[in-house]
Amino acid sequence: MLARNETHIGLRTSAQIAEALASAGYAVERNEWRRSFFRGLRSVEKVAGPRLDLFRYRLCIRARTPPG
Questions:
Q1: What's 25's DSSP letter?
Q2: ∠ CA 58-63-64 to the nearest 5 degrees?
Q3: Residue-level pLDDT at 42
Q4: What is the CA radius of gyration of the chain?
Q5: Side-chain half-sphere of 54: how many Cα atoms within 13 Å?
Q6: Residue 50 pLDDT > 70, yes or no?
Q7: Residue 35 CB: number of other CB atoms within 10 A?
């Protein structure tokens, strides 16, 4: 319905973010999703998250510059 605005918020997968970090010279050490702090939502994410990307809201990606 709405035109995509490239200058605004964009949805990216964790793989896309990790790839962008790696191409910028960062070493990706961790790339996973974490369940919500909210009890009801956490229960839904626990069941549906491993099966459906739609239920993976909180990404945890850790990257650092290589030593040297």
A1: T
A2: 155
A3: 79
A4: 15
A5: 4
A6: yes
A7: 16
